[in-house]
Design goal:
It is a single chain. This protein has about 150 residues and is mainly α. It has two domains: about 90 residues; about 45 residues, no CATH class. It is built from six helices and no strands. Helix 1 packs antiparallel against helix 2.
């Protein structure tokens, strides 16, 4: 039953995304139509915009069918189809999904420098000396070899 619930939620969200896509295609078509009227677009180019609007409209229509099936299946599982008063209600399945907190930002240059500093194989193979910036070359091969002998 939980999976059925989430499938209905997924179907609803999918329809919202497809509807927004359809609205964007419609806005693009309106822009292209205006460009055609002004002579900035050839008459044949408008057909691509019309086809895109039609394709996205079909996607919205096709997405409604699985939603109806999944919704009916969930209603049957819950027994909501038995009472006519509940059969016409649209169930409020969950609260709208909340966007997560913003991701932490990472200073990539600092992270790379720290990672290279902790890799002695990279530093001794001509990479960056620990504590040096990414653009600096190692001071000498001897310092890398001595550091490895002391660490071992």
């Amino acid at each position: 039953m939980v999976e059925q619930n989430w499938q209905v939620v997924l179907d609803r969200e999918n329809i919202q995304v497809l509807s927004q896509s359809y609205k964007a295609a419609q806005a693009s078509y309106n822009h292209d139509k205006r460009a055609l009227q002004l002579g900035a677009l050839s008459p044949l180019d408008i057909y691509q915009s019309e086809a895109e609007v039609a394709t996205r409209k079909i996607s919205v229509i096709r997405a409604r069918h699985p939603l109806k099936q999944d919704d009916d299946q969930l209603r049957t599982t819950l027994g909501a189809d038995l009472d006519p008063a509940y059969a016409t209600l649209d169930p409020d399945l969950i609260e709208p999904p909340k966007t997560p907190e913003p991701l932490l930002t990472v200073n990539t240059e600092k992270a790379v420098t720290q990672a290279l500093a902790k890799r002695p194989d990279s530093a001794c193979a001509g990479g960056v000396e620990p504590g040096a910036s990414a653009g600096e070359l190692p001071a000498s091969r001897g310092s890398c070899e001595a550091r490895h002998r002391s660490a071992a």
